[in-house]
Amino acid sequence: MSYVSPPDFVKHMVDAGESKVFMSTRDTLIRSFMAGAILALAAAFAITVTVQSGNALVGALLFPVGFILIYLLGFDLLTGVFTLVPLAWIDKRPGVTIGGLLRNWGLVFVGNFAGAFLVAVMMVVTMTYGFQTPPNEVAQQIGSIGEGRTVGYAEYGAGGMLTLFIRGVLCNWMVSTGVVAAFLAKDVVGKALIMWMPVMLFFYMGFEHSIVNMFLFPAGLMLGGEFSIMDYLVWNEIPTVLGNLVGGLSFVGLTLYATHYRTAAKRQPKLPTLSDHVVSR
Q1: Tell me, what's the pLDDT at 144?
Q2: DSSP of the chain, one letter per residue?
Q3: Do the Cβ atoms of 33 and 112 come closer than 8 Å?
Q4: Is the CB of residue 177 less than 8 Å from the CB of residue 253?
Q5: How confident is the model at residue 261 (pLDDT cuts 50, 70, 90)?
Q6: What is the pLDDT of residues 33-83, one digit of tens each?
């Protein structure tokens, strides 16, 4: 596995953030739609394996397959653009504005949700034979997850909201570590291996990922979960999105940018300018 030094791969991070700002609406929506759909399928797969094996670690070991596919195919998750896109603005790349940043985040959110929601509908149909049979064991588990991660938090009031937010922070700390660590390797095997570890950790620990939840909660509602759309938005999706933003940007994007990219830039020798040449004469 060829290794890319941190100062070099952080530059690639900033470049990637810049390219996403200028990506067309069409491409941004297509790539985010596919990312949401693939991640939803991976979540459904991991839950199925966990239920059938009775071992949550097995499901966590296999879930990163979907995440790795998303990255290798060049698709975009909201959690990733939360980390990468602001760096291009902070670096003052030409044409990168707050408006462009928010446009990217909004389009990716819409695309991710559409993809995850479509898979939720399709999975519920397959689990109930078109709503003709009671939910199977896997479907029941999905419904219980929706209840536990909405009204379950609400039972604890402010403490529950704080716990939810912090789980969102911890989630994207790990997920975005996987996103940016992939820049460390140049070959497929190396990228897959280095992404696998932090993503497996987040899934096994039960941290809150806003895109995974875009699948789990709509599916849970369709399967008869005892929570409402408002419960989902207030007691999961909105705090999770905010936590994911803070976790990815603060603990991954900004820290790497500050300690590697900015430090490396300061150490670069100053090139002589025309004014320097005139003064020296």
Answers
A1: 92
A2: --B--HHHHHHHHHHHHHHHHTS-HHHHHHHHHHHHHHHHHHHHHHHHHHHHHS-HHHHHHHTHHHHHHHHHTT---HHHHHHHHHHHHHTT-TT--HHHHHHHHHHHHHHHHHHHHHHHHHHHHHHHTTTTS---HHHHHHHHHHHHTTHHHHTTTHHHHHHHHHHHHHHHHHHHHHHHHGGGBSSHHHHHHHHHHHHHHHHHHT---HHHHHHHHHHHHHTT-S--HHHHIIIIIHHHHHHHHHHHIIIIIHHHIIIIIHHHHHHSPPPP-HHHHHHH-
A3: yes
A4: no
A5: confident
A6: 999 999 999 999 999 999 999 999 999 999 999 999 999 999 999 999 999
- Residue 257 backbone class (left: φ over 0; alpha: ψ -120 to 50; beta: rest): alpha
Phi, psi of 185 (to 5 degrees): -115, 155
For CA atoms 207, 50, 194, 28, the dihedral sign is negative
Largest CA distance in the chain: 89
Cβ distance 112 to 34 under 8 Å? no
pTM (2 d.p.): 0.92
Exposed, middle or buried: residue 151 (CB in 10 Å: 0-12, 13-18, 19+)?
Answer: middle
Instruction: Report yes or no: 76 and 31 within 8 Å, Cβ to Cβ.
Output: yes
Residue type, 169: V
